[in-house]
Task: structure prediction
Amino acid sequence: MTVRRSSGAASPRLQDTVRLSAHGLAKVLGDLEARILRAVWTIGTPATAREVHEHIVQAHDVSPITTITVLNRLVVKRVLWRSKQQGLIHFSARLTESEFMVQVSRRVVEGILSFGPDAVASSFVDVVAEQDPEKLEELAQLIQRRLQARNGG
Result:
């Protein structure tokens, strides 16, 4: 079995719109796509469509054909790999959950910055302060490290 890693892999093809009312991955993927990707990560090893479906159907009533369709859509979007093992098609994530979140977060931030960096930075700090005041210190330390790295030390 060959396991392909993300190094050099093309970025996922995600929609250019962010659904602000959705939660988590569903902001950039469809709801079912997000559920299926989470299932693939949870299973952790290359999984058949049946295994993914059995995982999904516990909480979301969906047909096996729909699961297969969405799995194949995620392959086209470069979110999943598809490979044949022991005569069966298996699906695995191209990126770990944290790698995927970093790529998606970066795209979202790049899009938000089109509103203007000053307004976005101010809003970001305000929201972090409201939601998790302790994170402000972590943010300050991150900014300090980036400034030091940029200035050579």
Notes: DSSP finds six helices and three strands in the chain. Residues 1-8 have pLDDT under 50 and may be disordered. The domain at 24-93 is CATH 1.10.10.10 (Arc Repressor Mutant, subunit A).
